[in-house]
């Protein structure tokens, strides 16, 4: 894949396999009547995504010498939250998408009611996984992870960001008010906070000192924003083939994006600046943060 | 209200007011664009329900001398989970209800997308509230509460029960397989586990000894089942006026209930037996459990 170092490619493949295995373990098939629910939860998490968030959890956890089983549970919890948000986002009342990564969305493969319940089930299960003693022997670490994840995913985080995004799509007055500050805030809520949680979970599990936590927080902030700007750029510049989805969709829908607000060139400059800044924040770390540096380069240069 | 002692009536009114105040505090109005989400969350929790679950949390918490602020936070978290499940249950793809307690359901008052997000927001916020240090100074207690609530509300609990219930409604083969054991299991998952959590949360907050925990668990089990059988009886015997909803709805829909399986008389006997048993389980407690005894009598004798 363009923009991806060999080391990053190998690490992504390796870690993604580990996360898939942990998800299989945490979301088993069941024989009872409610098997349809579990099937839908499994279907929605085994979707061939890049698994960027779990990758960030696992990579930072390694930097703080966290036990792999702990890190994998936290990574799986993050992925469950990410996948639940996609399942609910795809529903007819929300984005009404029939396909995700070329496969039928959950409500198309099953039905709407099952998709609603599968999303609810994944969201709830994520907290169960984090709070379980198998995730960490120290209950203070477990309850911190639950608190942080709930804040990142809840009404002041991801769900709040989705609300703003939806209103911007449907309400002319809200759309008119979306300037660079407002759209930055929206993306910070909608995707930034979950990316930040993913970068911080390993530090929490490894009881990292405050200075290193702050460095990772700053890295995550810039990485998340860079990720979003590049998303907007790819919608204009990417080829449909590489993206695996219709491009120019945002523009056609009159959507406010970083590109519509800043123009192509300034958006590109801004993305580059953020990727550079993200890497700068990693100065307190030696080679152990090289994968995070590669991630920043990849997020900037990716073609899909 | 019929079946309700004066002491219970006063305690329900008092505790319900405390829970409403805590919910107001935990779900504030916000000024930002996402205010619509918070409005929908507030609307869905301030619905004039009986608040039976929070009442059980607060009453058992008092038995173990838990600080009121701790108990109220746990009670509010339980109510958020209960209300989120109603919001999602009422959606067109699920039960498609326009009214709840005589008021428009969340998706009618707002819109479907907002209702989906409000449910997600309440579910997530409940875990945030429990994991927050303000709920208890001991993180082991907080993470135990999160774990227990997630198990009660998740795919092996409430969400799993909702899946079975939905399948029983839509799938002839599933309906045909619903005998007394299967319907008991379904209700145990769908409502029983949350009632059990509500009875146990106070004991967890108060670090109650195992023997008393077991007594409460047994009480909660019988209370929850009694509650459901009486629900089924009221659908047949209740007056529409007292119930505030259409009665005979289950029968008309060909729904499998305890009444359709056992007949009126045996269902009534079974409910009485369970209420008696529930009270028996409270033997280890003196007068401090009197409100729980009154609850059992009320659940059996209520007319709505």
UniProtKB/TrEMBL annotation, chains A, B:
CDD domains listed in its UniProt record: Trans_IPPS_HT
One protein family per Pfam: polyprenyl_synt
GO cellular component, one term: cytoplasm
GO terms classed as biological process: terpenoid biosynthetic process
Cofactor entry: Mg(2+)
Keyword DNA repair tagged: no
GO molecular function: metal ion binding; prenyltransferase activity
Keyword annotations of the record: Isoprene biosynthesis, Magnesium, Metal-binding, Transferase
InterPro entries: Isoprenoid_synthase_dom_sf, Polyprenyl_synt, Polyprenyl_synt_CS, Prenyl_diphosphate_synthase
PANTHER family, per database record: FARNESYL DIPHOSPHATE SYNTHASE
Protein family (similarity comment): Belongs to the FPP/GGPP synthase family.
Identification of the protein by name: Farnesyl-diphosphate synthase
Organism: Insolitispirillum peregrinum
Organism taxonomic ancestry: Bacteria, Pseudomonadati, Pseudomonadota, Alphaproteobacteria, Rhodospirillales
């Amino acid at each position: 894949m363009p923009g991806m170092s060999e080391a990053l490619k190998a690490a992504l493949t390796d870690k993604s396999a580990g996360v898939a295995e942990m998800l299989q373990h945490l979301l088993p098939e069941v024989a009872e009547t409610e098997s349809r629910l579990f099937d839908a939860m499994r279907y929605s998490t085994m979707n061939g995504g890049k698994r960027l968030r779990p990758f960030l959890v696992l990579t930072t956890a390694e930097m703080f010498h966290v036990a792999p089983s702990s890190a994998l549970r936290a990574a799986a919890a993050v992925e469950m939250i990410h996948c639940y948000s996609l399942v609910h986002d795809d529903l007819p009342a929300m984005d009404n998408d029939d396909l995700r990564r070329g496969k039928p969305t959950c409500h198309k493969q099953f039905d709407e009611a099952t998709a609603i319940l599968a999303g609810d089930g994944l969201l709830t299960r994520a907290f169960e996984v984090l709070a379980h003693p198998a995730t960490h022997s120290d209950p203070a670490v477990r309850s911190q992870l639950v608190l942080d994840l709930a804040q990142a995913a809840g009404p002041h985080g991801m769900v709040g960001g989705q609300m703003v995004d939806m209103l911007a799509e449907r309400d002319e007055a809200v759309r008119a008010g979306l300037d660079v500050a407002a759209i930055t805030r929206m993306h910070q809520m909608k995707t930034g906070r979950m990316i930040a949680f993913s970068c911080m979970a390993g530090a929490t599990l490894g009881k990292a000192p405050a200075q290193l936590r702050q460095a990772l927080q700053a890295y995550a902030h810039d990485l998340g924003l860079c990720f979003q700007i590049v998303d907007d750029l790819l919608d204009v510049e990417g080829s449909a083939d590489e993206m695996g989805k219709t491009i120019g969709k945002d523009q056609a829908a009159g959507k406010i994006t970083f590109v519509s607000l800043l123009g192509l060139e300034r958006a590109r400059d801004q993305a580059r600046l953020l990727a550079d800044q993200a890497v700068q924040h990693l100065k307190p770390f030696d080679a152990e943060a090289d994968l995070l540096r590669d991630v920043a380069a990849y997020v900037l240069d990716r073609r899909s």
